[in-house]
Write a structure and sequence with these properties.
single chain; 198 residues; alpha+beta
Length: 198
């Protein structure tokens, strides 16, 4: 009887080991497949992200300003928008697309560029260059390659699509999936965009 109990315990233990191994392999496979899955987003989806409930981590019931405040990637951007007096604008009804540099993007600015940027009039100009007023519709985004978008600052951002399918905004890369908010879209980018002649 003891032997049978011992055998049952061993069998259960082996079963748990196999289950843990299977779950681990599945998790690792999912993790490494994320870069591959990203290629399946059509370029226009960067500007027209899905609002489907299956993407809750990239959708928000809040406005752009409050959504940025909750994301640890955009601490610098939130603070810069606050200093420039743009946060209230991004809380208002209407629709905006914001190209949102991460903290790493701000930290990568050369010291001389950041010093120039830090002047109040330059900060406002640069941040407005990251904003597009109104919705970039699916029709507008149908053929993005080689197009340009006019920003709130007044100058345009050039759009191109590289061989990997990455949407480039000037020299910055847009990261899928974008975040759809109550009053617009947040598109994560890996560099701070600088307007012409800055």
């Amino acid at each position: 009887m003891l032997n049978q109990n011992h055998l049952n315990a061993l069998a259960t233990k082996n079963w748990f080991k196999k289950l843990a191994c299977a779950v681990g392999i599945a998790g690792f496979s999912t993790f490494i497949s994320f870069p591959v899955l990203a290629k399946f987003y059509p370029p226009r989806a960067l500007f027209q992200p899905s609002a489907h409930r299956s993407y809750p981590y990239r959708n928000s019931e809040k406005n752009i300003a409050d959504t940025l405040a909750q994301n640890s990637k955009f601490v610098n951007l939130f603070d810069e928008l606050k200093q420039a007096g743009l946060l209230e604008t991004l809380k208002q009804p209407g629709y905006f697309t914001i190209f949102a540099p991460t903290d790493d993007a701000f930290n990568a600015l050369p010291k001389d560029v950041f010093k120039r940027y830090s002047q109040p009039q330059n900060r406002l100009r640069v941040l407005k260059y990251h904003l597009v007023s109104g919705e970039i519709t699916a029709k507008d985004a149908k053929d993005l390659n080689g197009r340009a978008i006019t920003t709130v600052e007044g100058n345009q951002i050039n759009i191109s699509i590289d061989s990997e399918g990455t949407v480039k905004l000037n020299n910055a890369s847009g990261k899928h999936p974008s975040t759809k908010t109550k009053n617009g879209v947040i598109i994560e980018i890996d560099k701070v965009l600088l307007p012409p002649g800055f």
